[in-house]
Amino acid sequence: MSSIMIFLSLFLLFFRHCNADDNFLWGSSCSHPSEAKSSTWTTNLNNLFSALETNVTLNNGYCKAEAGENGPDKVNSFNTNSSSCDDGGGGRRRNRRVMVYQRWCVMRYSNESFFGVWEKSIHIVTSNRSFSKEQPAVAAKGRMMMMGLAAAAPGEGLMFAKAEMEDAMGGKRYGLAQCTRDLVKSDCRDCLEHLLKEYGSIGTGATVVEKRSWGMFVEGCFMLYDDIPFTAIDE
User: Fold this and answer.
1) How many domains, the chain?
2) N or C of the chain: less Cβ packing under 10 Å?
3) C-alpha–C-alpha distance, residues 157 and 154, integer Å
4) CA atoms of 6 and 77, how far apart (whole Å)
5) Sign of CA dihedral 181, 183, 184, 185
6) What span is annotated as the signal peptide, if there is one (predicted)?
7) Contacts of 38 (CB under 8 A, 6+ apart)
8) Are 10 and 62 in contact (CB under 8 A)?
9) Which of the listed residues 115, 145, 166 is the one where a domain comes to its end?
10) Do 97 and 133 fall within a single domain?
11) Do 10 and 103 share a domain, yes or no?
């Protein structure tokens, strides 16, 4: 029986709030609201968010729950750190397909099953609070750091890797690469490598990875880079 499915792939549950202390909205993507008018859909979605609140801390932030029947009102979802997540309220909840990326939360839900599949058709590539350009040497070093994280994350149990580096000018850069935990290792690697291949070139001074603060997201993985610490994990 098809059902509401909940997927929590929590990375920020393990992170203390630190210097980057605002739940910045990187971006979102929604289907047309006219697609979702069923009261059954609304009920299923409300049940889904209630279950997220209940189960967010289980199994290191990862869980699935099922409810509902076959048909267009089925909801498939994942959410990271639902206590910090903007579930869309009266706006996004009218849509059947939603993807939201915030600093402390990643949320996706759809009436179509997406577990185990990463998608490059919808992507978000953005500079965050800092639009300052990196020095070319720092940008190149930062890209190498992010390439290392892309290689390391698929082999980690929680499918994320983080690092920091010196910029040789008294500052640091911080990086994070993560996949949603429904992906197998090979798909996680392909997803992260896609981000760097498509959006991670350097040399023009105008690409996103030549900024001091940026994020790259597709449906299945994302990468963050900043000149202030946005993660602080207990080892």
Assistant:
1) 2
2) C
3) 8
4) 5
5) negative
6) 1-20
7) 72, 73
8) yes
9) 115
10) no
11) yes
Nearest residue to 52 (alpha-carbon basis) of 22, 29, 80, 17: 80
Pairing state of beta strands 76-79 and 4-7? Answer: parallel
Written as tens digits, the pLDDT of the chain (235 aa) is 334 443 443 333 333 333 444 556 666 666 655 555 678 888 888 887 777 666 666 656 666 555 567 677 777 665 555 555 655 544 455 677 777 777 667 777 777 777 788 887 666 777 655 567 888 899 999 999 999 999 999 999 888 999 999 998 889 999 999 998 889 999 999 999 999 988 877 665 567 788 888 888 888 899 999 888 875 443 4
Closest CA to 29 of 79, 77, 98: 98
- What is the domain-level CATH number for residue 145? 3.30.430.20
